[in-house]
Specification:
Layout: H1 2-23, H2 25-28, E1 31-32, E2 39-40, H3 41-51, H4 55-65, H5 69-89, H6 91-96, H7 98-103, H8 105-113, H9 118-137, H10 143-149, E3 152-154, E4 160-162, H11 170-182, H12 189-210, H13 213-229, H14 240-254
Antiparallel strand pairs: 1-2, 3-4
């Protein structure tokens, strides 16, 4: 029974992980009960994992891996503020404690990562998740058309939230996809070229289509990290420059309108 429950927790956590990456904010609206004030599925899984975990033991194991004192200060201060603000603000204190609650996913993730075979399952799940995320992110240029036909979910205030038209984290996801391609170790030359082209294309698309300052900053951070850890993995980024010009030619030929910062479009 215990092993079956552990497998269930791991599977539920992976589903939540995939849902957050692919759908982001709309996935957060899935809650029980489905309308009005309800517990989001992600937080429900978090509660189940934490309540079925020996937290002192897990925190001791975490402290052996990372310096846990800053996290303990953060959790203690945040929980104290949450209790104090609940008396004055009621439900709104829960909304304002989102960062505190979401930081507990670190504990849940560490707990599940210690289960036998969990990391192998995560690696198996990660490839299709990243493929779906990147293909979904490439639809950014059709955001308005998708929003017009997308089904909706009721938000916490009963507002309509499109399921398939929110691309707030597209730049980050595309760079994650590029990084995922850069760290692969294919055995064949064709595989290496394929991953290099995919990484270069994702970076070029993120730079050209999104035109966001945060994307530029994140790209520099990723390049700096890879330069320190594995300089050879930067080679796929060289494909981004010629692919950037190819995308410019395609956009010019097809007449696609890409919105830049503010109200500018190109």
């Amino acid at each position: 029974m215990s092993r079956a429950f552990d497998r269930f927790k791991a599977s539920a956590f992976l589903v939540v992980f995939a849902g957050y990456l692919i759908f982001n904010y709309p996935f957060m609206q899935l809650r029980i009960p489905p309308t009005g004030f309800g517990i989001p599925l992600g937080e429900l899984v978090l509660i189940v994992v934490l309540l079925s975990t020996d937290l002192p033991r897990v925190l001791m194991r975490m402290n052996a891996t990372v310096f846990l004192f800053p996290f303990l200060v953060w959790w203690s201060w945040g929980l104290g503020r949450f209790v104090f603000d609940t008396v004055e603000q009621g439900f709104w204190a829960l909304r304002d404690s989102t960062q505190l609650i979401e930081s507990l996913f670190l504990v849940a993730g560490f707990t599940l990562a210690g289960q036998p075979g969990m990391m192998a399952r995560l690696i198996r799940w990660l490839s299709p998740i990243m493929i779906i995320c990147c293909l979904y992110g490439l639809l950014f240029v059709f955001q308005e058309a998708i929003e017009a036909i997308s089904p909706t979910l009721p938000g916490a205030s009963d507002q309509a939230i499109p399921i398939f038209a929110l691309f707030a984290t597209t730049g980050t996801i595309l760079l994650w996809g590029a990084s995922f391609c850069m760290i692969q170790t294919p055995q064949s030359q064709a595989g290496r070229i394929g991953y290099a082209l995919a990484a270069g294309f994702l970076v070029a698309y993120a730079l050209l289509a999104l035109q966001a300052r945060t994307t530029y900053t994140q790209l520099l951070a990723v390049a700096g990290l890879v330069l320190v850890c594995n300089p050879r993995a930067l080679r796929p980024l060289a494909f981004a420059i010629p692919l950037l010009f190819v995308l410019l030619i395609v956009i010019s030929a097809t007449g696609l309108q890409i919105s830049g910062p503010g109200s500018a479009s190109y």
